[in-house]
Design brief:
single chain; alpha+beta; 4 helices; 6 strands; globular
């Protein structure tokens, strides 16, 4: 007998839509005003919807065309762990997105962890280029 997988929460389904279609309007609606983004490369959490959107838009741009995909997912009542894999400049990158949401199905916390260190080192300048003022 095979165990049945839990249903993917609506928030996670909407996040997958954003990633697959680079749908920035849907991304805006998905992020709560008081959301916090925790980067693997920045010491302090980035607080507020505008900062969270900036980091997530940058990541969508950086990972576009890299083979970024989610490998596995685990769900809680208002949280999810999404394991991803991709390749940056010939370096295999693996990590997780740890996502929490509120009762309005808006993301309140988005924490990214990346391995190996060489992968993080490849990611940092790419993200910095996207986040730097034009």
């Amino acid at each position: 007998m095979t165990a049945e997988l839990p249903a993917r929460p609506g928030v996670v389904e909407r996040w997958h839509h954003v990633v697959e279609h680079c749908d920035l309007a849907a991304l805006d609606a998905l992020i709560a005003d008081d959301a916090v983004f925790s980067s693997p490369a920045v010491f302090t959490p980035q607080e507020g919807k505008a900062k969270v959107l900036a980091y997530l838009r940058a990541a969508l741009t950086v990972f576009d065309g890299t083979g970024f995909h989610y490998v596995e997912e685990w769900y809680g009542d208002r949280s999810a762990v999404l394991e991803f894999a991709t390749e940056l400049d010939g370096i295999h990158v693996n990590g997780i997105d740890l996502v929490h949401w509120n009762d309005r199905d808006q993301i309140t916390s988005f924490k990214v962890m990346v391995r190996p260190v060489k992968g993080l080192q490849a990611l940092i300048p790419l993200m910095a280029a996207q986040l730097s003022p034009s």
